[in-house]
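During the no-cost extension, the postdoctoral fellow (Dr. R.K.) reprocessed legacy sequence entries with the updated structure-token encoder. One reprocessed record is reproduced below for audit purposes.
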Amino acid sequence: MSFLRNTFAVLMGLAIAGLIITLGIRAFPQWVTFEAFAPFEHWQRFLYSMKDDGAFFGFLLFISGLGSTFGGVATAIIVKYAKVAYAILIGFIMLFIAMLDVIIFPYHPTFYKISIFLTFFPFAWIGGKIVEVIYERKKKKRIAEKMNNKS
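Re-encoded structure tokens follow.
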């Protein structure tokens, strides 16, 4: 049962990260060069149209970091143990997808290619740490309440 729960958590984290990135790209109408909801269906043409727009790739890094953070948080909330480790897994998977994107489509600027390594993994780790800190505080509070009730 734990395997299914953890698999579901990872898939949910990836879906949330992908949704946030998709919504982020759609946030600015001047960047939308496609008719469908998901920009990934026309990704090559879309990247080609954005290849000289450094602001877009900077925003893409920001929104990817945000997506990784929220994906890491969602994953860490769902899994029972090793919350930070599973959140980091989200970052690694997102980094792997971004590296494939950079390899397959040659339209990314150099700063983006370097910055993806500084974005996905650390932001997903932060998402996992957020949940871990919250859970640890709740645990300490419950222990303190039990200790106070005993006396």
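Residues 2-149 form one domain. The chain is about 75% helix and 0% strand. The remaining legacy entries will be reprocessed before the final report is submitted.
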